[in-house]
């Protein structure tokens, strides 16, 4: 019987530990989920795709524009004439089909070098989109790490409060026993209970704060975390990092530099090139239309 009870306890402990291990998420896993499913990262990637699409030769004005149109019309008329003389009555049917199609080719061969400035501006916008994606990824990783470490901090504070609560519970029991044997005063017992209730209140507030941080972390990863999860027990700090490692390549790895000013400059140059150029834009247009009319009566 004792052996069965011990086996049951071991089984329950194994199941509990397995469930706990499954709900525990590591920092690396959270970062991967945030980069894949984070809303801000996905929005910046979509903006980059749009900029890449706009940065094309057709949008920049280098390639011709071809427009096509087609239409068709069917007419069916039934006519019946009646006279007093029935022998003269007559009826007829007339059908007509009208089909037309057209193709228009428009090619701007020269516009005062504005197309080259426009092309450079679109390329710069695409480059800005790439920088924005990298910058957003860095910011997302920083937010995830900060939030994850804050949860660990709250978790450690909860453990400290649990220890203090256990000590104060023992303090309440000792004060109660001293009062029951006449070696203590009631004020000491009331003070111990007051301190214990204050710590319980602080413990509840600490739990609420940790749950709020977990919800914020779940939002950063696109709500891909389990409903209940645990984090690691300690914060990993790299103590071997040096100042030289931080300052090396800081300019090339700093994605916060916004090239929007350069884009505005390219836009101004694009407009200026079109204004100061003495040559008029030259456009080549070809228009071809085909009509097909069929009448049947």
Summarize the SSE layout with pairings:
Elements: H1 2-23, H2 27-37, H3 39-54, H4 57-60, E1 65-81, E2 90-110, H5 114-180, H6 186-220, H7 243-247, H8 250-253, H9 260-276, E3 282-296
Antiparallel strand pairs: 1-2, 2-3
Helix pairs in contact: 2-5, 3-5, 5-6, 5-9
Please, what is the oligomeric state? single chain
Q: At CATH's second level, what is the architecture? A: Up-down Bundle
As laid out across the biggest beta sheet, the strand order is 1-2-3
List the domain count as a whole number: 1
Strand content: 15-25%
Number of strands: 3
Mean pLDDT comes to: 73
Tell me the CATH superfamily: Outer membrane efflux proteins (OEP)
Class from secondary-structure proportions? alpha+beta
Question: What gross morphology would you assign?
Answer: elongated
């Amino acid at each position: 019987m004792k052996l069965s009870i011990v086996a049951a306890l071991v089984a329950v402990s194994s199941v509990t530990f397995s469930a706990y291990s499954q709900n525990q998420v590591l920092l690396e896993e959270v970062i991967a989920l945030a980069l894949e499913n984070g809303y801000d990262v996905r929005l910046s990637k979509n903006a980059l795709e749009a900029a890449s699409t706009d940065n094309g030769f057709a949008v920049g004005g280098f390639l011709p524009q071809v427009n096509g149109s087609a239409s068709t019309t069917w007419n069916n008329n039934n006519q019946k004439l009646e006279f007093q003389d029935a022998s003269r009555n007559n009826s007829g049917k007339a059908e007509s089909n009208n089909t037309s199609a057209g193709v228009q080719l428009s090619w701007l061969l020269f516009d005062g070098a504005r197309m080259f400035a426009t092309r450079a501006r679109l390329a710069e916008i695409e480059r800005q989109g790439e920088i924005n994606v990298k910058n957003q990824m860095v910011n997302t990783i920083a937010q995830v790490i900060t939030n994850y470490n804050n949860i660990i901090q709250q978790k450690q504070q909860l453990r400290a409060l649990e220890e203090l609560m256990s000590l104060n519970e023992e303090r309440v029991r000792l004060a109660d026993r001293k009062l029951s044997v006449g070696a203590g005063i009631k004020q000491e017992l009331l003070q111990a209970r007051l301190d214990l209730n204050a710590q319980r209140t602080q413990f509840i507030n600490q739990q609420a704060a940790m749950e709020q941080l977990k919800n914020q972390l779940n939002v950063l990863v696109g709500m891909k975390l389990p409903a209940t999860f645990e984090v690691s027990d300690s914060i990993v700090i790299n103590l071997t990092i040096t100042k030289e490692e931080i300052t090396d390549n800081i300019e090339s790895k700093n994605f916060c530099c916004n090239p929007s000013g350069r884009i505005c400059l390219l836009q101004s140059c694009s407009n200026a090139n079109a204004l100061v150029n003495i040559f008029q834009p030259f456009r080549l247009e070809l228009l071809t239309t085909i009509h097909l009319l069929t009448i049947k009566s």
